Amino acid sequence: MGTRIEFTRPDGDKAPGYLAEFAPGAPGVVVIQEWWGLSPQILSVADRLKEAGYTVLAPDLYRGYLAETAEDASAKMNRLDWSDATNQDIRGAVQFLETQDSKVAVLGFCMGGALTLAAGVHVPEVDAVVCFYGIPPEQLADSRQIKVPVLGHFATHDDWVTPAKVVALEADLKVAGVEHSLHSYDANHAFFNDTRPEVYKAHLADVAWERTLNFLQAQLT
User: Is 14 left (phi over 0), alpha (psi -120 to 50) or beta?
Assistant: First the structure.
């Protein structure tokens, strides 16, 4: 189990987060929430990564708020300042985990997946990114400007991050010469979220998790 902390953003303000600390000098992973908020499911991902040997910080982008309906989550996401979340909260979290001896990845889901790719553009301290079914709007981040290796997990039955958008993302990464591996799963959006039985696919989530751990080990250790 982790602990609730506050960390310092680049602008000097404080931001809340959930820290699951493995050991001094361990590689770091910043975990970015879905549009629901910093939910128990996201905290469980942080705890699983700690068990795998990483020190993890999940910034609370909604400052304690948890949405209960999709309509509420959508409204909260649309009110979020995505640029501030990327350049201040996420960058501050990466800086908090970064040490002379350790590298840091950013990993996110849904809204957090989009912010994860944005971090690959705007957060110079990040070493790798893992995106679950999220692509940022071009006005936030141009995928051709990503500077670090990318692992992506996407669903073939997704009305938000459509297969066509994934194809376009891969084309951008190829043009930019970015090391990447994008995987598409016969599933719906949020297939990794085990608290949503209507979309959760356990066997596909297990495959995505194994690929994620292999990628993090290759990039951070």
Answer: beta
Contact criterion met (CB below 8 Å) for 49 and 20: yes
Contact 150, 181 (CB under 8 A): yes
Average pLDDT rounded to a whole number, residues 43-66: 97
Using only C-alpha atoms, the chain has a radius of gyration, in whole angstroms, of 16
**How many CB atoms within 10 Å of residue 120?**
27
* H-helix or E-strand spanning residue 164: helix 163-176
Tokens in use for 44?
Answer: 């469980």
Q: Would you give the DSSP letter of residue 147?
A: -
In angstroms, the Cα distances linking 130 to 20, 31, 72, 99, 127 are: 18, 9, 26, 20, 11
Indicate the class that CATH gives domain 3-220.
Answer: alpha beta
Are 189 and 176 spatial neighbours (Cβ–Cβ below 8 Å)? no
Beta strands 104-109 and 28-32 are parallel
Closest C-alpha to 157, from 117, 182, 189 = 189
Domain ranges of the chain: 3-220
DSSP 134: -
Distance CA 129, CA 135 (A): 12
Residues 50, 182, 87: CA angle, nearest 5 degrees: 60
Taking the mean position of all CA atoms in its chain, how far away is CA 195? 18
Express each pLDDT in 194-207 by its tens digit: 999 999 999 999 99
Token pair listed for 150: 């990318």
Element (H, E) at 40: helix 40-51
Look at residue 101 and tell me whether its pLDDT is greater than 80: no
Structure tokens at 107: 């990993």
